[in-house]
Automatic annotation (TrEMBL):
This is Uncharacterized protein LOC118281883 isoform X1. Pfam families: MTHFR. The gene is LOC118281883. Its cofactor is FAD. GO terms for biological process: methionine biosynthetic process; tetrahydrofolate interconversion. It comes from Spodoptera frugiperda (Fall armyworm). Belongs to the methylenetetrahydrofolate reductase family.
């Protein structure tokens, strides 16, 4: 379909700084319309236990189609949780009909294999490739600092047909650099997109850490506390992280976990572009 662009093509040749936004299905249309910056794409999260894959008019699909109708590029999250082959077949056909070709596959929070036709994302990737060939550009999750066993699973996902890796948020450029080198060492050479969480207060950081179950260093917590004491914005920490990712790791595209606080992330983007 005309206007359908694969994410791996989108992020190439976009200069030294490009960005994308993750939103949840309850993001307001007004907030999208009022944005003064233009992300390369919006990713839309998937919450199987909430909508239970009951039909093709669930919240994440409504949001994805709404964004598409506004000529936005869309990356739709999908999880193995509660996913059947019948539903996925119908869903893939609907996405193709509407020109959405980018997918981000995860296992799913609280995944229980007894309620899914897919035991893992590798099986889902294989199924999508068998049904639709190379139409979809498929991404999988990566966790900087993951175990060697988890890294081998990422390699298996890429070998099965994944086209890019999108990481969980991190706050230490050294952790990402090490992850990138480990990926390259085992032959994983697809684009690696860093996930970024921009926070303005220690409370926001604490909430995100608890929600996403990620670890943060004592050094970061101290830096956040120092910034607050010195009345400096915590976003300075994220600005420095992005600067280091660019200079040390040659990273030019960043995916922001907005938690629908689009105005806050927009402000940071505008400052980074100055």
């Amino acid at each position: 379909m005309e206007g359908t662009i694969k994410l791996t093509d989108l992020i190439q040749n976009k200069g030294n700084f490009s960005y994308s936004f993750e939103v949840t299905p309850d993001v307001s249309e007004e907030d999208i319309d009022n944005l003064k910056v233009e992300p390369l794409f919006f990713s839309v999260t998937w919450h199987a236990k909430m909508h239970q894959c009951k039909d093709l008019s669930i919240a994440p699909l409504k949001t994805a189609l709404q964004l598409k109708s506004k000529q936005k590029n869309v990356l739709l999250h999908l999880s193995c949780d509660m996913m059947t082959t019948t539903y996925l077949t119908d869903l893939l056909a609907m996405l193709q009909e509407n020109g959405i070709c980018n997918l981000f596959l995860v296992l799913g929070e609280g995944f229980y294999p007894g309620k899914s036709d897919f035991i893992n994302t590798i099986e889902m990737i294989k199924f999508i490739r068998e049904k639709t060939g190379q139409y979809f550009c498929i991404g999988v999750a990566g966790h900087p600092g993951c175990s060697d066993e988890k890294l081998k699973q990422i390699k298996q996902k890429v070998d099965a047909g994944a086209n890019f890796i999108l990481t969980q948020a991190f706050f230490d450029v050294g952790v990402f650099k090490n992850f990138k080198e480990r990926c390259e060492k085992i032959g994983v050479r697809v684009p690696l997109i860093p996930g970024v969480f921009s926070f303005e207060t220690p409370r926001q950081l604490d909430g995100f850490v608890k929600m996403c179950k990620i670890k943060v260093s004592e050094d970061l917590l101290k830096a956040v506390g120092d910034n607050e004491k010195m009345n400096k914005p915590c976003t300075d920490i994220i600005k420095e992280l992005i600067k280091q990712l660019n200079s040390i790791c040659n990273i030019t595209h960043y995916h922001f976990f907005t938690i629908n606080k689009l105005n806050d992330v927009q402000k940071l983007i505008e400052e980074l572009k100055q």
